[in-house]
Automatic annotation (TrEMBL):
Native organism: Dissostichus mawsoni (Antarctic cod)
Molecular function (Gene Ontology), one example: water channel activity
Topology with respect to the bilayer: Multi-pass membrane protein
Keywords for the protein's UniProt record, in alphabetical order: Cell membrane, Glycoprotein, Membrane, Phosphoprotein, Repeat, Transmembrane, Transmembrane helix, Transport
Residues spanning the membrane: 12-37, 49-73, 94-115, 121-138, 150-170, 190-210
Superkingdom of origin organism: Eukaryota
UniProt subcellular location: Basolateral cell membrane
Family, as annotated: Belongs to the MIP/aquaporin (TC 1.A.8) family.
Protein name, as recorded: Uncharacterized protein
Keyword set includes Transmembrane helix: yes
InterPro entries: Aquaporin-like, Aquaporin_transptr, MIP
Cellular component aspect of the GO annotation: basolateral plasma membrane
Length: 260
């Protein structure tokens, strides 16, 4: 099939394997923070929500920094779906990313299950750790190793967890939930953790990409297609050859600087 012709390249499997290992490490590190080691005590302490939130956020930030320049470090089916909607990834790669993410989550959860004493395993965070950080993934310079996009993504995950854990468990990552659910065979309301984050992620990505017009090339195409490049008054010092778009305020076109 033409749509899957790129799966025979080394680069393709390099990206897919990066998603697998990134998800494995993310689940292993993140779920490890949900283990309540005081559960065997007579008066067990409740789970530390700040600890869990920081661990998930810093883990995802680290994985994005390590694997972002290889595969894009989606590490979330909701992010992959958002990339398909905004045409930033092929359907064939998205399918294999999804499989790699789910398999990595299962392996990571299985490793944690095997090394954790049965007395403190609990539910292994099946309902612990949406569309906010999907927007961060759409930034054109997100894979720049000198930038701080990975930190922004991690902080968005921390914020989501701090707010949503008391309400729903904050499972913003379908694959992250799938792994421990498979290992512990706990499927109660599992579909919610696929539908919610995926819909939220694709909606947030679509609004960011198509309504707020952050991409300069898309702005130009939009202007040429729908606005027919109208002649607008330019401020002094403006490059007359610089394409303009009604998606942006006039102050953004005072000088031909690179837009991010």
């Amino acid at each position: 099939m033409t749509a899957f012709k790129d799966i025979w390249t080394q680069e393709f499997w390099r990206c897919v394997s990066a998603e697998f290992f990134a998800m494995l490490l993310f689940v292993l590190l993140g779920l490890g923070s949900t283990i309540n080691w005081g559960a065997i005590a007579e008066d067990p302490r409740p789970a530390d929500l700040v600890l869990i939130s920081l661990c998930f956020g810093l883990s995802i930030a680290t994985m994005v920094q390590c694997f972002g320049h290889i595969s894009g470090a989606h590490i979330n089916p909701a992010v992959t779906a958002a990339m398909v909607v905004t045409r930033k990834i092929s359907l064939s790669k998205a399918i294999f990313y999804l499989l790699a993410q789910c398999l990595g989550s299962i392996v990571g959860a299985a490793i944690l299950y095997g090394i954790t004493p049965a007395s403190v395993r609990g539910g292994m965070g099946v309902t612990t750790v949406s569309g906010l950080h999907c927007v961060c993934y759409l930034r054109p310079k997100r894979n720049d190793l000198k930038g701080s996009s990975s930190l922004a993504i991690g902080l968005s995950v921390v914020i989501g967890h701090l707010f949503a854990i008391p309400y729903t468990g904050a499972s913003m990552n379908p694959a992250r939930t799938f792994g421990p659910a498979m290992v512990t065979w706990s499927w109660d309301y599992h579909w919610v953790y696929w539908v919610g984050p995926t819909l939220g992620g694709t909606l947030a990505a679509a609004l960011y990409e198509y309504m707020f017009c952050p991409d300069p090339e898309m702005k130009t195409n939009y202007s040429e297609t729908f606005i027919h490049s109208p002649t607008l008054p330019l401020s002094s010092g403006t490059d007359q050859s610089q394409p303009r778009s009604l998606c942006s305020p006039s102050w953004m076109w005072r000088e031909p600087t690179e837009m991010s």
